[in-house]
Amino acid sequence: MRYGWLRLPSLFALLVLTACAKRDDTEPEVVTLADDVPNRFLQFPDAMPALAAGRYTVVAATATAGVAGSYQLRIRRDDGSEETINGSWSNSGGQDPVAAGNPRHDVDMAAPGGLQLSLTSTVDAYLYLLKNEQVVAEDDNSGGGSHAAINLAANAINSLAYAEAYYRLVDPDNERTTLADWKRKNGFDAGEQVHVVFRDAKDLGYGRNMRARRNDDGSVAVFVENYLVQLQPGNPGNYGPLNLEAAIREDREHHVGTNAIEFSPIDPNDPDSEKVLKFFTFEPGPNGTQQRVLETNLDGRGKKFMPGPCLACHGGRLLPLEADGSFPLQSLRSGKYNALEVNALEYSATPGYGRDDMEAGLRELNAFVHGTLQTLQDKPADNPGKWAGEFALDTSGGRYGGDAFPLLTADDHYVPTGWQQTGNRPEGVELLYKQVVEPHCSSCHALQGNQAGEDEQVLVDGELISLANAVNFSSYEKFMAYNDQIIDYVYRRGIMPLSLRNYESFWRDPDGAPTLLASFLQDFPLFDSAGKVNAPGAPVAKPGANRRVQSPVQLDASASLFAETYAWRIVSAPGSASLSSTNVAAPVFEADADGDYVLELVVSNSRGASEPALLTVSIDSTVTAQSQLTFADDIRPILGSATGLRCASCHNSPTTNTGIPVRYDDNNPSLYRDVLARINFADPENSRLLRKPTSVRHGGGIQLDLSTEQGQADYNTLINWIREGAVCGDAAGICN
Amino acid sequence: MSGVGRSSFLLCALLALPVCAEEESPWSVDLDVTGGYDDNVGRSQFRRDIVGEYFGTVSASLNYDLELDPRKAMTFRALAESESREVMKPLQRTSFGGEFIYRWQSDFGFFEPFYQFTLRGQDDDYEVTQRDASVYTAQLQRTQRLTANWTYLLGVEHKETDSDGTVFDLSASRLFGNLDYRVDADWVVYSTLSYARGDVHSVAQNRFCNGLPAADIYPLVQVSDAIEPDEAFNETFCGSWLAYRGEADALSLSLGVNRAFADTYSFDLSVLQARVTSTEDRDAYYDRQIVRASILMRF
Predict the structure, then answer these.
(1) Is B222 on the interface with A (CB under 8 A)?
(2) Could you report the predicted ipTM of this complex, rounded to two decimals?
(3) 8 Å CB contact between A207 and A365
(4) pLDDT tens across A412-432, in order?
(5) What is the DSSP string of B168-191?
(6) pLDDT (tens digit, 9 = 90+) per residue, A658-692?
(7) Which of B66, B164, B222 comes nearest A5 by C-beta?
(8) What residues in B contact A22, CB-CB < 8 Å?
(9) Is the peptide bond before A525 cis (omega within 30 degrees of 0)?
């Protein structure tokens, strides 16, 4: 008994303490994804980072030569890490990026991306970023006075600056900063003409309360309030049927934001100017207002800057900002309304909100959309926004019996002409359309493309097809022209279907749509040993295309998919060779003798290791050193900019090729910028600049024939130039 | 470990403790074996969501009584409990905890009231993480004999549940009254009326097995302050199940009979009927009935 009193409370205390361990679940969860989970939804495949991997040089210069002073240089990287360098001038070299008196600092980019440089100093400073001694970027003196700054975006089309530039263009007088103002500007004071409520089960999963009106001037405005009953952060169950009930009741507790689109004059002050689509996103603000926002999180996978997540599926073609920081008009003109697929929406069992109740409103809304598509289709041939809208018009009107919309309800079984069964098409092509293409691809793809090269037709499986605009998937043949890219984008990268909800729905039953689509694809390589198709997430090593270069050469395999670790190995070497590192994405390879060196790369993640990928680096001391390649001297001749040959024979101005999106002739004052806009440092071989001329899906046909020596040499020059940072050079009028 | 296996383990572990067999020992072990039927395990409102099933509970406690003076006493108690289920395996539970009880009587006397203050901490471990919880209870009660046969009890209680989920974090307070009638030396019949206000959790399907949405549960969502997918029901049944939490009034009545056999064990049979109604919307409610039979033993 003497110790009982002490022993029992101790036991008791122990048990109570065990029970009292604080649970930590009620804090909002940060959604973390495993390393094999695709996470590039509602965005364009080409992020277009500003810089390639490799070594750069920062030069601290001054406005005038011969001054002394000190400076502090801050280098901020995409991951948020920051480095500060203190330095000084004793006798500065002025605005000369290679002058001896201007201090230099090396910056290594381990992967393609962006960089922010800022320099504060005791004297009026100037700042340069060099690659291979060529100026890549220089101070715009935005800080003024002694400050200098260079901001290079990791994603050229998804940044704060991009969103700000967009709103400056579509609302220059800031007349649409709240939903109430937007509604007023779009005539909603007179009431709405259409009001429908449904769940967008296919793309976003929200309950959507949508109102629309078409004004007398032909403008069409639609806004949709999005409702989300959040169960758990990151839980797909958030995007379920309760959202529809919240939308029906307009339950403000679950109202997460409003998307608004207007089809209105490009110049707000000129009602007769051409009409374009303008996107706005509003979110609940103070006192019940809905405030315009620059970025939005539409799928629970993080915020993205406007207008990217909207234009991604509204026919958009996003290009980097213009040199003056303005939003590119070509991108603005690329937007289109999506027709609503009545059979893909979810309706409520609540009386008054079933499909039958919504059908008339949806028909009227689709008639509005159809009208805007016709307007865009009918633009003059010389209008830069000229677009080939036949397929979009076919699908939006076809479901209602034609352009006049004679049917009162949408025909769920409509199959467009390009997808109907013919003797030349394999059995099941209509099933492919109804099970895969219509539910997962065509909404966005029907709005893609332009009219350039539409008259160039080739024979594919007995059908005369224009592959120039194949990206709109208007026919089975056009769709199949993307055989390899479908395998890559859908099954390897997991970036298509474009929206997360659609992706989840596509992969919900791997034996369903994924297997059906795979059965139509030629040389489909991704069946497992049991004959099953696995969802994306497996690591894929991508060391890049074989290259002929001088030693040393910067390699970059950061385009590899789902790669957490890298393992390089020299498989065969005619001479002594080495890698600066064998376990990084972008090592430097060095060899002391000419010849073909075969390297192997294996990447891995939690699913395991990738198949080994081989890269042949041909060291050739007779070729132009890749570090010396410039746009002015080496790329323009390939494009034919000065001669009007090859690319520039069609990509010129004025052109007979209606809707051609880019001009490669020397008369284009932003030739170099336009070429840069077609380069993707993050995946160089997938750059549009290389993809188009090597593909039959090009109005001008194959212009870089890789089966010829000349074609291979030109391709080698292009890929080497891109991988070395795609510098311009010194040519006056081209680079300055 | 299966529910039955786990129960056996607990029982053996506790019985293996060095329990003093002397009559005057302050140590004792209580053992409670209960079988019952819960007609609404998920505390659901809609008929289609209601799941009823049998359960079995084995609980044991090691008690240490300390008499401070003839009118004051304390008890320290270490608890272990295991609950097994027939269908809802994810709701099978193992609990460990401790309890402190302080009893006192102001004045001596057969009819004088005595009071009891209880603090209890318990860790519940379910087979789904979401419901794992630490439960803390504070209770104060007054008991008084009215006659040689009638005894009443009045009490107040507050309970806090801190779970690994969100919906299962609960806070509630309760008033309760109990009336015992001692029929003879062996038989007691009793009744307990209880009123509680605070958080309750419920379960509902938001999508049926055939994929159709259950739109009519939205009013339940509107009275909820937290919602999350219910791991236990989603693991057990097809369709999609949500757990939701809201403030409610809970009124319950239980009737029971207890038969004592000697001093060491008794048999208890009770039935509890409860109605739980949302404080925000009186049309949001659920009913629940639990019938249980127990054998209580003291060693």
Answers:
(1) yes
(2) 0.73
(3) no
(4) 999 999 999 999 899 999 999
(5) T-EEEEEEEEEEEEE-SSSEEEEE
(6) 778 888 999 899 999 999 999 999 999 999 999 99
(7) B66
(8) 134, 162
(9) no
